[in-house]
């Protein structure tokens, strides 16, 4: 019990990290998506297939 009293700040940080990771993906659909197919890949300026850089919705 003394360990919890001494380390309560780290326990709160850990719980916040887990909660934000699980529930803080607002609008992203969480991990794994919602069953939709992946968007088609875009071509870079050099003609190589690949994803565009940047995070888009």
From TrEMBL:
Region (Disordered): 28-57
Basic and acidic residues bias locations: 31-49
Transmembrane segments: 7-24
Domain of life, per lineage: Bacteria
Swiss-Prot/TrEMBL keywords: Membrane, Transmembrane, Transmembrane helix
Keyword Transmembrane part of the UniProt annotation: yes
UniProt-listed Pfam families: DUF2933
Protein name (Swiss-Prot/TrEMBL): DUF2933 domain-containing protein
Annotated source species: Sulfurifustis variabilis
């Amino acid at each position: 019990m003394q360990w919890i009293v001494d380390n309560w700040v780290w326990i709160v940080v850990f719980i916040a990290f887990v909660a934000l990771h699980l529930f803080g993906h607002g609008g992203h659909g969480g991990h794994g998506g919602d069953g939709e197919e992946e968007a088609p890949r875009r071509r870079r300026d050099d003609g190589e297939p690949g994803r565009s850089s940047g995070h888009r919705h």
